[in-house]
């Protein structure tokens, strides 16, 4: 006999709305979701809806047991790779149909990509972001995929580049009328962009046969293949690449807002073309907000540095909306880097600056730029505090400082930033654990009145006394919210036990979070 209490227990899930149910279940790992599918019909309806991303990578921890099952190790021609189990991939997509962000990493064997794309076309409702290797996908498959998902795709990336093979990217891109971001080197290939330009010219000729000589920009809005493209990553490592960038800038001069250009290994081979690239290439993007450059210096005369001043001056004068400039130096000497840094004075307003240095450089000089509010500095060989002390004088309005790839970071380097009176957020990403102690953190905090957030990507030398110090510091300022990421998750077993006992007995202030 069924009692009223039994009925209430049986129907308890029915009193919870589908929206609330899927909001609760979204935090489960994918392999746990598969196990719980049989709990109830409501679980079957809601358990997969919030799973929107699928990352297939040997280093990914998102899919735990599912990831281990979907990848099969095998020995290829050169090294051990991982092959995707197409049958299991199809089974997963048949359940997680709401996935719209798919990443298949570069160290995955992609010989069965046509079969995998077939599973996506069969099961996925919509795909917004795609990051895969295009080199082993047939033109017919990309064309069919574009017909189904071209209208929904917003971001396309490719994590693999081949010098011997050109992908059939155009077969997909011609359908992507709403694409916003396109990031990969092979998208600068001559075959792809010639298809784009030829299509545009054909459309123009159909519109008006008497105006064949009309410039491409005049009808770009009607015939452009990617009309909503706002972000693109391009590789300019040959003369043909420079020509493609020139034509690309003519088409997207009023559309593109973010561009990343790689000039690796090209400066030495053709100095004239590099001089040509800046004033007639990048500077044409009038609505440019973000410009990221990768430079490699392979020698030459001092007179060849004229292109730096000309190029940066052109970007500063012709792209008035630019807010973020990033320069990645690969294998440079001090005099070359300093020449580029001094040329940054042409920017009267530059809120966000990113500098990446790959070598051990002792004598770098950072020019004063009062408009910089966020600085991303990647400096793996920084052993002295001289450069960080320069930042205090050069960037007095800095509110957000991100130090990446730090090979060595200690209390002395931390406290060399004391003079930054407006600094609110500090992030330190190191190749090694930072040598920062409780005393070092205490000294920095008590002399940095505006600080709000300190984040380390590896655990510093801290203990329970450090937490006591932070709590005392926060309690004196109850109106300000503080965030500290001290990587307590990386503690040893004994330390974790001590921290767990401590946090269970000592309540944290409401205006403070520690991770």
From TrEMBL:
This is F-box domain-containing protein. InterPro entries: LRR_dom_sf. It comes from Blomia tropicalis.
């Amino acid at each position: 006999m069924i009692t009223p209490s039994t009925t209430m227990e049986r129907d308890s899930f029915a009193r919870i709305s589908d929206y609330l149910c899927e909001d609760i279940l979204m935090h489960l790992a994918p392999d746990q979701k598969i196990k719980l599918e049989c709990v109830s019909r409501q679980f079957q309806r809601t358990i997969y809806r919030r799973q929107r991303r699928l990352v297939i990578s040997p280093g990914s921890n998102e899919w735990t047991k599912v990831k281990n099952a979907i990848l099969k190790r095998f020995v290829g021609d050169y090294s051990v790779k991982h092959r995707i189990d197409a049958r299991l991939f199809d089974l997963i997509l048949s359940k997680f149909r709401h996935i719209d962000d798919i990443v298949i990493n570069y160290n995955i064997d992609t010989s069965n990509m046509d079969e995998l794309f077939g599973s996506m076309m069969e099961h996925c409702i919509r795909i917004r972001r795609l990051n895969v290797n295009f080199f082993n996908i047939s033109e017919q498959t990309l064309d069919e995929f574009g017909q189904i998902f071209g209208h929904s795709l917003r971001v396309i990336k490719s994590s693999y580049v081949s010098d011997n093979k050109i992908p059939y990217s155009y077969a997909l891109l011609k359908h992507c009328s709403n694409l916003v971001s396109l990031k990969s080197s092979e998208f600068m290939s001559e075959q792809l962009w010639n298809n784009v330009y030829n299509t545009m010219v054909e459309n123009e000729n159909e519109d008006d046969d008497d105006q064949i000589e009309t410039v491409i920009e005049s009808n770009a809005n009607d015939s452009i293949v990617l009309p909503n493209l706002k972000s693109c990553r391009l590789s300019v490592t040959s003369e043909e690449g420079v020509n493609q960038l020139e034509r690309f800038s003519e088409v997207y001069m009023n559309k593109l807002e973010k561009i990343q250009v790689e000039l690796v290994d090209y400066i030495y081979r053709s100095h004239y073309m590099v001089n040509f690239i800046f004033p007639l290439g990048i500077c044409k993007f009038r609505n440019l907000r973000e410009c990221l450059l990768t430079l490699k210096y392979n020698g030459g005369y001092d007179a060849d540095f004229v292109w730096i001043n000309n190029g940066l001056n052109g970007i500063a004068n012709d792209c008035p909306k630019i807010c973020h400039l990033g320069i990645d130096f690969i294998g440079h000497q001090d005099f070359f880097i300093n020449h580029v840094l001094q040329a940054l004075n042409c920017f009267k307003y530059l809120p966000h600056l990113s500098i990446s240095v790959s070598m051990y450089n002792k004598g770098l000089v950072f020019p004063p730029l009062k408009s910089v509010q966020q600085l991303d500095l990647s400096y793996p060989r920084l052993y002295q505090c001289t450069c960080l002390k320069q930042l205090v004088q050069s960037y007095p309005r800095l509110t957000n400082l991100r130090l990446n790839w730090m090979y060595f970071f200690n209390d002395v380097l931390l406290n060399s930033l004391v003079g930054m009176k407006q600094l609110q957020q500090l992030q330190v990403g190191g190749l090694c654990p930072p040598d920062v102690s409780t005393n070092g953190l205490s000294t920095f905090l008590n002399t940095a009145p505006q600080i709000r957030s300190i984040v380390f990507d590896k655990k510093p030398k801290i203990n329970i006394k450090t937490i006591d110090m932070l709590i005392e510091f926060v309690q004196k300022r109850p109106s300000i919210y503080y965030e500290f990421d001290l990587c307590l998750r990386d503690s040893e077993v004994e330390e974790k036990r001590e921290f767990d006992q401590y946090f269970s007995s000592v309540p944290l202030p409401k205006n403070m979070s520690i991770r």
